[in-house]
Design goal:
Blueprint (H helix, E strand, L loop, with lengths): L4 E2 L2 E2 L2 E5 H5 L11 H7 L8 H33 L8 E7 L5 H12 L8 E5 L7 H6 L14 H12 L4 E4 L2 E2 L4 E2 L5 E4 L3 E5 L20 E6 L2 H17 L10 H5 L3 H24 L8 E5 L5 E7 L2
Bound molecules: adenosine-5'-diphosphate (ADP) and the ligand CC(C)(COP(=O)(O)O)[C@@H](O)C(=O)NCCC(=O)O.
Adenosine-5'-diphosphate (ADP) binds next to α4.
Keywords: ATP-binding, Coenzyme A biosynthesis, Cytoplasm, Kinase, Nucleotide-binding, Transferase
Protein name: Pantothenate kinase
GO cellular component, one term: cytoplasm
């Protein structure tokens, strides 16, 4: 365990290697089968049972402690104000680059956190539901900025999380389809107020615009999934190659012509260009600068395995 110091001032972070973090699992039981894990894994994501045991069970234990402590703090404030108990979900943000594996992390957490008897209902919402439809992105000339902060309806995202936090019983959200590469016209996802709400997306740790609130202002805990840019690039390309063989071969896919008309070399040139001109620029300019705001950083190595964990103590 290292407590880095800078200019003699103790750092707010503690950094643990994989073995030190894994030891913090304590007695948290492993109640997930290989078949259940298989369903939670994203395309080409190799997250294994070892990863669940060494990384996600200690994290589940830590989050359970956070939920309990946060409930106690809220109850104390309500008692101080003489207010009745009002249920509010514990909100967790999961951030990181396109293709870093956030959705696998978020789905695993949803399953593991729901196994605790004190917070069985866990909802997961991906911020792609709040992207502006392609028609709006085209109108604004920002179709090549999909995933950048301005490509989202940030007000609607903040409104959704703030309403859930304020105790709203349910909310209706738009739906994004990776297949159509667009918002689904008339699509609705209904979210009933859970014990824990996980909000996953590349830009969830963005600071607020002047005079506004950002979605991160409502997080009780946040996780940044991190890796070297060149490794994430390789994962993006590997996944694209696999999607070309699978999802893109569906005639309804926005990228269908990449599967049917372009040979593999042309397809991969297109993918490299998309990575370099959109996703890497967004990572370096907008996403990486938010890493320091996360409560926890999971650092992945080239093989996708988490090597180190950094926790913010204060
Ligand atoms: N073009 C696509 N077609 C189908 N599925 C996709 C496409 N792009 C991404 N996905 C899937 O969407 C999910 C989210 O991907 P992404 O936003 O890159 O985040 P991450 O890889 O960090 O989970 C992943 O499960 C991925 O497999
Ligand atoms: C939909 C995404 C912006 C991710 O959205 P998120 O759920 O993280 O808000 C991303 O997967 C994406 O499609 N990026 C655009 C460039 C590309 O096609 O890779």
């Amino acid at each position: 365990m290292s407590h880095a110091t800078k200019n003699g001032v103790s750092s707010p972070y503690v950094e643990l290697d994989r073995a030190a973090w894994a030891a913090l699992r304590d007695s948290t039981p492993l109640a997930l089968t290989e078949a259940e894990l298989e369903v939670l894994r994203g395309t080409t994501d190799p997250t294994s049972m070892d990863e669940v045991r060494d990384i996600y069970l200690p994290l589940s234990r830590l989050l359970n402690l956070y939920v309990k402590a946060t409930r106690q703090r809220h109850a104390a404030v309500r008692a101080f104000l003489g207010e009745d108990d009002r249920p509010a979900p514990f909100v967790i943000g999961v951030a990181g680059s396109v293709a870093v594996g956030k959705s696998t992390t978020a789905r695993l957490l949803r399953t593991l956190l729901a196994q605790w008897p004190d917070h069985p209902s866990v909802e997961l919402v991906s911020t792609d539901n709040f992207l502006h439809p392609n028609s709006v992105l085209q109108q604004r000339g920002i179709m090549n900025r999909k995933g950048f902060p301005e490509s989202y309806d940030r007000r609607a995202l903040v409104r959704f999380v703030s309403e859930m936090k304020a105790g709203a019983a349910r909310a209706e959200l738009p739906v994004y389809s990776h297949l159509a590469y667009d918002i689904v016209p008339g699509g609705v996802q209904t979210v009933y107020r859970p014990d824990i709400l996980i909000v996953e997306g590349i830009n969830v740790l963005q600071p607020p615009q002047p005079g506004r609130l950002a979605v991160a202002d409502f997080f009780d805990f946040s996780i940044y999934v991190d890796a070297r840019v060149e490794h994430i690039r390789q994962w993006y390309l590997d996944r694209f190659r696999e999607l070309r063989r699978t999802a893109f071969s569906d005639p309804r896919s926005y990228f269908h012509s990449i599967a049917t008309q372009a040979d593999e070399e042309e397809a991969m040139t297109f993918a490299s260009q998309t990575w370099r001109t959109i996703n890497e620029v967004n990572l370096v300019e907008n996403i990486l600068p938010t890493r320091g705001r996360a409560t926890l950083v999971l650092y992945k190595g080239e093989d996708h395995r988490i090597r180190r964990v950094r926790l913010r103590k204060t």
